[in-house]
Write a structure and sequence with these properties.
heterodimer; A: mainly beta; four-stranded antiparallel sheet; 0% helix; globular; B: six-stranded mixed sheet; 12 strands
């Protein structure tokens, strides 16, 4: 069966520091991959999605970036974090087509 | 533009009573609809989906949803609520055009089931 892993579960970073959040999927190949941010336990904002290695689409312009160095690895990065980057970051995968997305357990990021 | 609306921020139900969490949608093509549940500090869990076929879709944990094309609704239902059903529920619709393949989520409805 397929599983998705995100780490770390929680992270506290100072303003201006860099960021790297990692997400890996097991048990499937060539998945679509997604990064979301959830503010205040409510609506999800799609940040990036990828349909293949090296293929990244950005939904919202910001100081975050994403990379997909391997088929089942998706990384969210920032060179300099802002206070507004605080939130709950969720990674998800899906098969291509009209398929449900499956989510990891998220990383809660606090910026001080 | 595609959109999903969940008109209720919170729904309160007594344990054992039926529950309904409402969702309406707007899409430019065939509606592909999904329901997810989120427990505190966890990711979203897929409950059920409507692609085509029967308007009543059955999903996980005893939940079902009724697709109504004329009312552009996809309400989530359960005949008898459990305290453990208390969580945040999200409705989503598959996007078209530039967002094709991506899911557009509603803002979520907090379900509270009291014993």
């Amino acid at each position: 069966s397929q599983t998705i892993h995100q780490w770390p579960a929680t992270l506290v970073q100072p303003v201006g520091s860099p960021l790297s959040l990692e997400c890996t999927v097991e048990g499937t190949s060539n998945p679509n991959l997604y990064w979301y941010r959830q503010a205040a336990g409510r609506g999800l904002q799609l940040l990036f999605y990828s349909v293949g290695i090296g293929q990244i689409s950005s939904e919202v312009p910001q100081n975050l970036s994403a990379s997909r160095p391997q088929d089942r690895q998706f990384i969210l990065s920032s060179k300099k974090l802002l206070l507004s980057d605080s939130g709950f970051y969720l990674c998800a995968w899906s098969h291509p087509g009209v398929q449900p997305q499956h989510f990891g357990d998220g990383t809660r990021l606090s910026i001080l | 533009a595609q959109s999903v609306a969940q008109p209720e921020d919170q729904v309160n139900v007594a344990e054992g009573n039926p529950l309904t969490v409402k969702c309406t949608y707007s899409v430019s093509g065939n509606p592909y609809l999904f329901w997810y549940v989120q427990y505190p500090n966890r990711g979203l869990q897929f409950l059920l989906k409507y692609i085509t076929g029967d308007n009543l879709v059955k999903g996980s944990y005893g939940f079902e949803a009724e697709f109504n094309k004329s009312q552009t609704s996809f309400h989530l239902k359960k005949p008898s609520a459990l305290v453990s059903d208390s969580a945040l529920y999200f409705c989503a619709v598959r996007g078209y055009g530039g967002s094709q393949g991506n899911l557009i989520f509603g803002k979520g409805t907090k379900l509270s089931v009291k014993p």
